[in-house]
Amino acid sequence: MKNWQAVAHFGVKVLATYFLGFIVACIAMTTITIAGQLHLKDNVSDDVLMLGFALALLALSHWWLHIPLFKRPQHVKSATLIVVIMIALNLVDNELHWGMFPTALLDGLCIGLVEELMCRGPILFWLWTKAPRRWSPYWWTAITSGIAFGLLHLTNYSVNPDWTQVLIQVGYAAAMGFAAAGLFMYTQNLSFTIIMHAGFDTLAGLSGYSNSYVGMNFQDIASLLLMVIVDLVIGIWLMKQLSRENHELRF
Questions:
Q1: For the segment 32-67, what is each residue's pLDDT rounded down to a tens digit?
Q2: Fewer Cβ within 10 Å of end Cβ, the chain: N or C?
Q3: In DSSP terms, which residues pair with 70 in a beta bridge?
Q4: Residue 51 CB: number of other CB atoms within 10 A?
């Protein structure tokens, strides 16, 4: 990202981008509902809202903020392996119900698209501009955007009002966000993290369990710890690749 230059008043425009994206999504949802007199199921309504928000963020990021989200991908083979590993982490101790595949896939795609654009989009570039001089900007951006991704999952309290469960998810989402930020900066293309995130959440949907719930038995705790450790190892490896002296990657 060293060759990327922020536009004037970048921080204000980033904040406005998220606000405008939400407004556009609400307008699109209202228009679809009124025009078609549709009685959408709750999950479909949520998906439409998320898709509208994601498309608005994508358009504003490209034409207003001028941030490079989909440059020519770098290190495709190693990045693809990382994506497969991160998706496969959700196969541990999960029984899949394939009859739920259409709904799980739609939900996974919408969640993956919107959350990656939210947390690995404008805010990641804004955090890059705030990196302290004594920090590697790659480490700073990955850690802080990972924390932001984790905190985003505090909203799951509305689905599962159990603070223990919510804080567990905040923790492992932060680890996943750290690795995902590294993956985006390593590949220079958001497609890899979108596919990883969508695949991960699709498997969660197929398991019949919400990502806002983690079992408290030994097997579930062990699989959770495995997920966190692998995500952290991947993130650290990516940071080392990005932080090498004279590294060829330059955003």
A1: 666 555 555 656 677 878 888 999 999 999 999 999
A2: C
A3: 189
A4: 18
On whether the CB atoms of residues 140 and 134 are closer than 8 A, the answer is no
Q: Length of the chain, please? A: 251
Alpha-carbon torsion (74, 174, 60, 112), positive or negative: positive
Structure token digits, residue 207? 């398991």
- DSSP, collapsed to helix, strand or coil, labels residue 209 as coil
What residues have CB less than 8 Å from 40, skipping those under 6 apart?
33, 48
Report pLDDT digits (tens) over 96-119.
Answer: 888 888 888 999 999 999 999 999
Alpha-carbon span 51 to 242, nearest angstrom: 31
Listed residue (57, 199, 194, 48) closest to 123, CA to CA = 57
Residue reference for tokens 């020519």: 72
